[in-house]
Amino acid sequence: MKLHEVRVHPSKSLLKRDDQLAWKIAGVAADKVAVEKDVTAMIINRIIDNAAVAIASINRGPVVSARGMALGHTKRGGATLFGLPGRKTVSPEWAAWANGTAVRELDYHDTFLAADYSHPGDNIPPILAVAQAMERTGRDLIRGIATGYEIQIDLVKAICLHEWKKDHIAHLAPAQAAGIGALLGLKQEVIFQAVQQAVHVSFTTRQSRKGEISSWKAFAPAHAGKLAIEAVDRAMRGEGAPSPVYEGEDSVIAWMLGGKNAVYHVPLPDKGEPKRAIMDSYTKEHSAEYQSQALIDLAFRMRESIEDFNAIKKIIIHTSHHTHYVIGTGANDPQKMDPKASRETLDHSIMYIVAVALQDGSWSHVDSYAPQRAQRADTVALWHKIETREDKEWTRRYHTADPSEKAFGGRIEIQFKNGKTLIDEMAVANAHSLGARPFGRPDYINKFEMLTSGVISPRESARFLDAVQDLPKLPAGELDRLNVAVPGGALLESKPGIF
């Protein structure tokens, strides 16, 4: 990997194209280096993971709406939609919209956390949609997905968006554009323009994840995918983009991020170096914000030592800056303590999550968020006894580049009314690559079968799993086999709109 310094340059300096971050990103995408076997295997795992959570959310409100919108843009020889038969296709940007929403709705797929946050599995829907519409091979798709993961994760390692209250899709859209460019084998010049266009149109605020969190949280990454496909389409037609999009006087860095004196150092693979960033990411065993994964597992362990929940006086979660200020009491969001809050808000309340995990010793993507569960009197009482505090050591471990020290958990201190305390800590979730039970292929398959049981037929399940595990051998025109269909008549229809 090579570190690239990125900062604002005055217009009169005429920054050379070769020195611009977007050009370097495009160079990585255009480099047709072979994808290594373990990376290919992980890509297959994440396609399985995405399909699992998409089908589990197939009739949830935002997914129904997104699918209804997409069906207003049917296209012969287009891309497939989760839930529908493979013969029903739509324009790829709308497939990316619908499928991306389905993948994101439950907040249950993969994650990478560093200087900023990301769900790099959000790269898969738009890259797959274009691959289907353009009749590419399984190997083409693998190259595109490996590139999308690489670019997003490298940006997340270097440039914090949250500090400036920008949503993390600002790193996702250029990664998706780069991944599509790699998939299609486009020239560096074309990818360069597409990446810049994708950056320019995808900066939004983090209000989507603050206060009363709405369904836009599910739509946002899908919106990025739609923008990325449109950006690549324009660039392929010869259109240019605002440039330099990162380093210019009125660029995103100058006015939306660190400002004119900011300096970032972005790691990118050298020419000929394999794209391996996907191996740094991790998926979720529990349907909740990733920073809660280890704390859920820790709560399961600690509950075994609690005889009487009414005897608890107070619970303090000592954790990282990001956990405290995003999903903890440091966010100062009263909605995070509201029993009538939306599912999206409860998913971003570590106080609620720890209370339910302590009481139940299990976690369900449905039952743990049900209104009757959130409004249970004993749960509300316990929930309101929980607070978070930043611990500088947990913050340091959150940001460290040393994988053996990196941590996304914390220490839970339970104070009882009789003066006794129960203290335990956990650095990473059990399913993390350094956890007690790292996820492997059987775990991804089990998650898929668990989430799709009763939604799709056993025959459809087996067909999909056979196809996806044979991904490197899938020929051009057969990527529709990666779609998953539910039985006829099982899909809800959306309310009418414009399309």
From TrEMBL:
<comment type="similarity">
    <text>Belongs to the PrpD family.</text>
</comment>
<feature type="domain" description="MmgE/PrpD N-terminal">
    <location>
        <begin position="20"/>
        <end position="262"/>
    </location>
</feature>
<dbReference type="InterPro" id="IPR042188">
    <property type="entry name" value="MmgE/PrpD_sf_2"/>
</dbReference>
<dbReference type="InterPro" id="IPR045336">
    <property type="entry name" value="MmgE_PrpD_N"/>
</dbReference>
<dbReference type="InterPro" id="IPR045337">
    <property type="entry name" value="MmgE_PrpD_C"/>
</dbReference>
<protein>
    <submittedName>
        <fullName>2-methylcitrate dehydratase</fullName>
    </submittedName>
</protein>
<dbReference type="Pfam" id="PF19305">
    <property type="entry name" value="MmgE_PrpD_C"/>
</dbReference>
<dbReference type="GO" id="GO:0016829">
    <property type="term" value="F:lyase activity"/>
</dbReference>
<dbReference type="InterPro" id="IPR036148">
    <property type="entry name" value="MmgE/PrpD_sf"/>
</dbReference>
<dbReference type="InterPro" id="IPR042183">
    <property type="entry name" value="MmgE/PrpD_sf_1"/>
</dbReference>
<dbReference type="Pfam" id="PF03972">
    <property type="entry name" value="MmgE_PrpD_N"/>
</dbReference>
<feature type="domain" description="MmgE/PrpD C-terminal">
    <location>
        <begin position="286"/>
        <end position="471"/>
    </location>
</feature>
<dbReference type="InterPro" id="IPR005656">
    <property type="entry name" value="MmgE_PrpD"/>
</dbReference>
